[in-house]
């Protein structure tokens, strides 16, 4: 789907706001964790929408912005109109010390000259404005604050910004709700809202049901800007929990098995809620071609992959051969980016899956395509491997036991163990590991040995004989 560049929601009171903000945002945006265009300068902005939430004539002003950010093109990449980002800009005469980390800068020109602007989510008052608008189903300019009819949202819930590094931003309200504010946005149905709503209709308790959400722009393809869901108070992040157990020398087998069951429950509910398709020879050929192209690009980017290219490619060819022999697979909607950090264990011991946005770097249409469920499974198996290699010393047996328990737990609910389809599982694990190699080479070179060890194992293993691939 081609992304529109149409401007909407701007009026005479906000039309010149960028005059004030432009020079400050050029410096501030590239420093944000969620900014995707790192390494390239910001050359300008296009205003998609600006909405005044609080007028800046008092102690505090608040603006909601959708801005298209222009940067020099990536070498060899096709032309791109620029990524669209969602910003909440607070305006004050001066910042109190508690808001110092939120500073964007002091405005020297334009309608906000002489004021200080800052990231508003650090400030409780702007965060309260958002929750109240969701609670009351407000319409403000081009913004539409929606609420599920069966959800009650109390007023007076105290907000706090979650400061952990994320590709989006999250605010917790009174340990009752959590608001996920999407940063890089595109028009269209976002799976981070679509899939939890579908699962709620199916009564799947493994995913917190959306209580409210924020949209902008005209139907049928508005921007999905934020989703409010129940907050799992006292929950353990799966990644942090796994690392703690590793540090204590404890196994994670029971938790991995329970997590496998939870994954299967979500997959089963998604298969009921949304259409599934059959992948035959033609579809598998396209899938394998995509994996092969990603491998070739990765080898060019990271020469350390070269010794393993032949073995990795043979895994994709084995999948192509199975399709040519008449094998087919079912594809359905899946999580799309499943790993330990996307899972929460409540104090009662129940596991929940969160963050159904998929891989944000991939096009929205691709993230909404049906996929074999093994894609999610492969992502989780790789996550166990990462956790094990984070220990000192690394604990490969810990990962192997977790992988086996996870698959067994999945089979208890789904009725089919993913290890009984070893060629497909191996292909998806390789595709994920190759992606990890490129990511680590670019962003965390010290971590590169982790996916390279998996590449070495997967390039030389025979999935029909390998012990860990048998139930």
Q: Quick gist of this model?
A:
By secondary structure, this protein is α+β, with helices and mostly antiparallel strands. Helices cover 38% and strands 19% of the residues. The longest helix is centred in the C-terminal third of the chain and has 22 residues, at 422-443.
Which properties best describe this structure?
471 residues, single chain, 12 helices, seven-stranded antiparallel beta sheet, disordered C terminus, alpha+beta, Aminoglycoside 3'-phosphotransferase, Chain: A, domain 2
CATH hierarchy: architecture of the largest domain: Alpha-Beta Complex
Fraction in helix: 25-40%
How would you spell out the order of helices and strands? HEEEEEHEEEEEEHEEEHHEHHEEEHHHHH
Give me the number of helical elements. Answer: 12
Q: Largest sheet at a glance?
A: 7 strands, antiparallel
Query: What is the CATH H-level superfamily of the largest domain?
Result: Aminoglycoside phosphotransferase (APH), C-terminal lobe
- Low-confidence runs: 1-13, 465-471
Total of domains: 2
From the 3D structure, determine the CATH topology of the largest domain: Aminoglycoside 3'-phosphotransferase, Chain: A, domain 2
Question: Into which percentage range does the β-strand content fall?
Answer: 15-25%
Radius of gyration: 23 Å
Strand order of the largest sheet: 6-7-12-13-10-9-8
Q: Find the count of extended strands (DSSP E, 2+ residues).
A: 18
- What is the name of the CATH class of the largest domain? Alpha Beta
Overall body shape: globular
């Amino acid at each position: 789907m081609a992304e529109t560049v149409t401007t909407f929601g701007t009026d005479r009171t906000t039309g010149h706001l960028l005059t004030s903000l432009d020079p400050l945002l050029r410096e501030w945006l590239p420093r944000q964790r969620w900014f995707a265009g790192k390494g390239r300068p910001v050359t300008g902005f296009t205003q998609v929408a600006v909405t005044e939430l609080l007028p800046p004539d008092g102690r505090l002003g608040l603006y909601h912005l959708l801005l298209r950010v222009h940067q020099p093109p990536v070498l060899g990449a096709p032309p791109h109109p620029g990524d669209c980002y969602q910003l909440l800009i607070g305006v004050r005469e001066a910042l109190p010390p508690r808001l110092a980390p939120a500073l964007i800068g002091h405005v020297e020109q334009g309608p906000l000259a002489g004021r200080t602007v800052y990231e508003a989510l650090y400030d409780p008052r702007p965060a309260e404005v958002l929750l109240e608008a969701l609670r009351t189903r407000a319409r403000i300019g081009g913004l539409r604050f929606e609420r599920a009819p069966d959800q009650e949202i109390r007023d007076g819930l105290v907000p706090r910004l979650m400061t952990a590094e994320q590709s989006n931003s999250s605010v917790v309200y009174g340990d009752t709700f959590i608001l996920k504010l999407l940063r890089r946005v595109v028009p269209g149905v976002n799976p981070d809202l679509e899939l939890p709503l579908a699962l709620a209709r199916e009564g799947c308790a493994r995913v917190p049901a959306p209580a409210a959400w924020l949209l902008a722009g005209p139907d049928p393809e508005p921007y999905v800007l934020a989703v409010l869901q129940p907050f799992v108070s006292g929950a353990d992040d799966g990644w942090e929990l796994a690392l703690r157990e590793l540090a204590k020398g404890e196994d994670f087998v029971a938790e991995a098995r329970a997590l496998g069951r939870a994954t299967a429950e979500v997959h089963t509910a998604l298969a009921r809620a949304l259409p599934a398709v059959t992948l035959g020879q033609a579809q598998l050929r396209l899938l394998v071609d995509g994996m092969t192209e990603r491998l070739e690009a990765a080898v060019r980017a990271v020469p350390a992959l070269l010794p393993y290219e032949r073995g990795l490619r043979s895994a994709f060819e084995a999948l192509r051969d199975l399709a040519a022999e008449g094998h087919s697979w079912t594809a359905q909607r899946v999580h799309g980016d499943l790993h330990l950090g996307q899972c929460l264990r409540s104090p009662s011991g129940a596991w929940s899956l969160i963050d159904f946005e998929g891989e944000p770097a991939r096009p929205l249409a691709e993230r909404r395509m049906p996929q074999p469920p093994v894609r999610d499974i492969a992502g989780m198996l790789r996550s166990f491997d990462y956790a094990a290699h984070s220990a000192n010393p690394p604990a490969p047996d810990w990962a192997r036991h977790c992988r086996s328990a996870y698959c067994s737990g999945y089979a208890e609910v789904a009725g089919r163990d993913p290890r009984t389809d070893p060629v497909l599982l191996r292909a998806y694990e390789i595709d994920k590991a190759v992606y990890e190699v490129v990511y680590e080479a670019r962003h965390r070179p010290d971590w590169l040995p982790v996916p390279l060890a998996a590449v070495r194992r997967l390039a030389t293993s025979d999935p029909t004989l390998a012990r860990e691939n048998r139930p």
